TrEMBL record:
GO terms for molecular function: DNA-binding transcription factor activity; transcription cis-regulatory region binding. This is LysR family transcriptional regulator. Keywords: DNA-binding, Transcription, Transcription regulation. InterPro entries: LysR_HTH_N, LysR_subst-bd, WH-like_DNA-bd_sf, WH_DNA-bd_sf. Belongs to the LysR transcriptional regulatory family. Residues 2-59 form the HTH lysR-type domain. Gene3D superfamilies: Periplasmic binding protein-like II, Winged helix-like DNA-binding domain superfamily/Winged helix DNA-binding domain. Pfam families: HTH_1, LysR_substrate.
Length: 298
């Protein structure tokens, strides 16, 4: 049996000309729009649109179907509005992308109090930028700017990438080695320690090492754990080193559970950006999320 929502989605695609436009008009995700369309095409047995770039061009059969269903769907929508409780409001849903550690450290504590629905997505930054451009995500938190003309970036904070260690790491011995300014000695001392890394992202360690020693690290971490927050918790055991963003462990350094070992010869900093599409139906919700981030990280 056909789902009437498929026809409503079909009408929205026809009217807006894009999957993204239909998703914005219906307050659903772009994958949801694609699923409705493919389901309807499978049901009727023929293609309803030709995909040309990002534009959805209706086929001849698509035009015939639109002429047949447009007026009845509009009437049903009017009936829905008339019978809907006057006090009932549509609760928007926005999709936000960021790294797992950033979510845990910032937004997680506020989720239960948000006045709208929220979908959090984790992934690599290039992938999130692509999903933002396609309308799958509405807002991303990223240290990397994309090049799409549809996306605007707003700097709101920065993170410094630092070398930290457990409280039992002999920082005094390391400082003595640092005073020699002998790069080989400094690197050798660090390589003799136990190291933590993550399964998904070694970029911070690679960049920190290249900045300070001129090459990628020629060793593998001793312990590979799921994410950087796991690293911080492991370091509280007393030993080991890791390269992490400072905001993830600032409170642990202040409490003495983790040590700041070295900021590097040159400070390694990333600017953090809000990324969102220039045209969005969720400006109010996006500004709410931005405000929470500024409150925590500003």
């Amino acid at each position: 049996m056909v789902n009437l929502e498929w026809y409503r989605t079909f009408k929205a695609i026809y009217k807006t000309g894009t999957l993204t436009g239909a998703a914005d008009a219906l307050f659903i995700s772009q994958p949801g729009v694609s699923l409705h369309l493919s389901s309807l095409e499978a049901y009727v047995g023929y293609k309803l649109f030709d995909r040309t770039g990002r534009k959805m061009i209706p086929t001849e059969r698509g035009k015939v179907l639109f002429n047949a269903v447009a007026e009845p769907i509009t009437k049903l929508e009017d009936v829905e509005k008339n019978f809907q409780k006057s006090t009932e409001k549509h609760t928007p849903t926005i999709s936000v992308g960021m790294c797992f550690e950033t979510f845990q450290t910032t937004l997680e504590q506020y989720v239960s109090s948000l006045p709208f629905n929220l979908i959090i997505s984790f992934g690599e930054y290039p992938e999130m930028l692509d999903q933002l451009d396609k309308g799958i995500l509405d807002l991303i938190i990223t240290p990397k700017k994309g090049s799409s003309p549809n996306i605007e970036h707003e700097a709101f904070s920065s993170e410094q990438i630092v070398l930290v260690g457990g409280k039992d790491v002999d920082k005094t011995a390391f400082n003595k080695v640092l005073k020699t300014k002998d790069i080989e000695q400094i690197e050798g001392w660090l390589k003799n320690e136990k190291w933590y890394g993550t399964t998904g992202d070694m970029e911070h360690l690679f960049q920190f090492w290249i900045l300070n020693f001129g090459h990628k690290p020629n060793f593998r971490p001793n312990y590979i754990v799921p994410n950087m927050n796991s690293i911080i918790r492991c370091l509280k055991g007393g030993t080991g080193l890791a390269v992490v963003p400072d905001f993830l462990c600032r409170s642990d350094i202040e409490s003495g559970e983790v040590q700041l070992i070295w900021e590097g010869k040159k400070k390694f900093e990333n600017t953090l950006y809000f990324g969102c599409r220039k045209k969005t139906n969720y400006q109010t919700e996006i500004e709410h999320i931005k405000g929470l981030f500024r409150q925590v990280m500003g």
